[in-house]
Amino acid sequence: MKNLKFRTRLFVSFCAVLLLAILLPGFYVYNTLESELLKESREKALRHLDFIEWMLAGEAPFESNAALDRWATSAGEKLGSRITLITPGGAVIADSSVPYKEIRYMENHADREEIRSAKARDPAVSIRYSSTLKQELIYAARKINSPTGSDDLYLRTAYPVSSVENRLSNYTENFLAGLALIFALTFLFSVYLARKFEAPVHQVINRLKAIAGGDFSHQYILDSGREFYDLSMTLNETADRIREQMEVISEQNREMETILENMREGVMLIDRTGRIKALNRSMAGIAECHLSCIGKRPLEAFLNSEVQAACNKILQGRSEYSLTISMEQERYYEMYAAKIPDGGALMVFYDISERKRLEKIRRDFVANVSHELKTPLTSIKGYVDTLIAGDFSINAQGLAFLSTIQKNAAQMTNIVNDLLELTRLEEKPPHLSLQPVEAARMFDSTWETFQPIADEKQIRLDNRLTSPLWVYAHESTLSRVFRNLIDNAVQYSPQGGTITASSEAGNVEIIFAIQDEGPGIAPAHQDRIFERFYRIDKERSRASGGTGLGLSICKHAVAAMAGRIWVKSPPPGQTRGSVFCFSLSRAEASEAITAPTDPE
Ligand code: ADP
Questions:
Q1: How many Å apart are CA 600 and CA 589, to the nearest integer?
Q2: CA dihedral defined by 484, 485, 490, 491, rounded to 10 degrees?
Q3: Ligand 1 pocket test target in 411, 450, 533, 541 with most atoms within 8 Å of CB
Q4: Nearest atom, ligand 1, residue 537 CA
Q5: Tell me, what's the pLDDT at 384?
Q6: Mutate which of 529, 539, 569 to test ligand 1's pocket (most atoms within 8 Å of Cβ)?
Q7: 61 upstream amide cis, omega within 30 of 0
Q8: Distance between CA 320 and CA 335 in Å, rounded?
């Protein structure tokens, strides 16, 4: 029904209503007419029977059955009906429709419906099929005094019911003809109505198409009644509102475009299939493409696997991700990727090349100065050592000066060495050559070098690191981390204190902890002690030969080995002291056997 045309649906609906409205009363009238006609026929049959009985009584008596049959035949012909006389036993003795000679061969009529009914009540009527005359007849029968003087007889009259049928079929024919006419008129009317309604509906459709296509001008559907005029007004209002909304959206889009286009940061939208959907001018500059980037994967546009990996992470469900990437020609970007609600990703690139360049200049400067200082310092230290140890005539005050020079030269050498180490860590991150290293054994051998100082301060080591503890690390870098942390722990531990070394192995990483019972670090300093030259007590640090670079080296070293470092002071469950923790990725012993040795 849904796919049918409007006019067909209208016609079908009309027909359904008409069928219900005409057929039901039609059937009712037909049935009433039929029963009325039959009732009338029955009454007529009885009157007919009375008349024939009266005629028969006027002619009686008959001398024989043959005379009776002759009278029945002539009366039947004249009246146009069948007249039969039947004995109570059912034998037919006269019949107007059967020659007298054949009467004796006729069936016994005792069980005929009208005869049985006439025996029970007088007179009786029945309508049934006559096997003798092979047609539907209306019978009337009654018991009468024998016109031949013998026993009582049954007089039966019959004539065809065709008159009733004819009238009914006439009625049916007229009814059907009327129905056909009504349907034809209905069809024409529904076509007319459909045409009348379709025209404005087409106008409405065209109007809506025009609005969808951006034509917001006012138009009216004319000559179609009040409703369609109201509809036109509503459509015009809707068109106005859509136009306003479109203008607001376009305005916002233009503003957004202007902002995006003039941003120094590169902005790019990735659709849910991982292809570039939109990007601003800065981003096109970074990727060295413009419109040609649209539809490409980030890898194809940027020729950088890290950008593609970041995009994949977001598309796989991560809400945000950031990292620093380097591109050709010394370009560095801080990349920030975030999930957008409809399933794609937003990527923003901040150009940090200038910052990186300045950092490099600073690093190079520090490295150059350190290098330049190293030789004169070694020379100063050598001469001072020689002067102190040699056989020179230097008085006590001179020796005191020399020893101060020696101490400061040593301190400067430490600073220069630490600065060179930091530069090395920043320039060549050792995570490129991480290998499985057994950390517990390395801790033991590092501790051994501090044993004399620890003994001097009667410091006890509670070593809870149980071999083997395999981690991904760079041997000399990890050794440096242990050395700096043990150095600080020993330095800041009180006389007779305990240093505890422990580890906690997770599924992917192992956390190392070196705890002391020293003065601890106030919360305000805890983040800052990992900065270069940051010392809480400068004098104490200098006096003990500290450079203020030890923890900064640890931070860079651990980061270069893909780990983290942090401090808790006081350690959980303690009132004093501090614990330095760092994490490294867990490795398996089996990997150590196959891993190539670090050439460094
Ligand atoms: P330093 O050469 O001065 O030890 P570090 O970078 O190793 O330099 O440490 C920075 C500062 O952190 C130190 O000057 C000191 O104030 C503080 N610090 C480091 N380790 C400890 C510790 N175990 N207990 C208390 N303070 C510490």
A1: 21
A2: 60
A3: 541
A4: 16
A5: 93
A6: 529
A7: yes
A8: 11
- What is the tens place of the pLDDT at every residue in 79-135? 888 899 999 888 998 999 889 889 888 889 888 888 888 888 778 888 888 777 777
| Ligand 1 atom 21: residue of nearest CA | 488
pLDDT at 521 over 70: yes
Centre of ligand 1 to C-alpha 511, Å, is: 20
Nearest CA to ligand 1 atom 12: 529
CATH number for the region 435-594 comes to 3.30.565.10
Query: Is 108 within 8 Å of 84 (Cβ atoms)?
Result: no
In the structure, which protein residues have their CB atom closer than 6 angstroms to any atom of ligand 1? 484, 488-489, 492, 516, 518-519, 521, 529, 534-537, 541, 546-552, 578
Q: Where residue 183 falls among pLDDT bands split at 50, 70, 90?
A: confident
As assigned by CATH, the class of the 8-167 domain is: alpha beta
Per-domain residue ranges of the chain: 8-167, 263-351, 356-425, 435-594
Comparing 8-167 with 435-594, is the CATH topology the same?
A: no
Ligand 1 atom with minimal separation from the 538 CA: 14
263-351: CATH topology is Beta-Lactamase (3.30.450)
Residue 78: which of 46, 52, 57, 103 has the closest Cα?
52
Contact 171, 34 (CB under 8 A): no
Ligand 1 centroid, distance to 218 Cα (angstroms): 80
Place of tokens 């902005």: 267
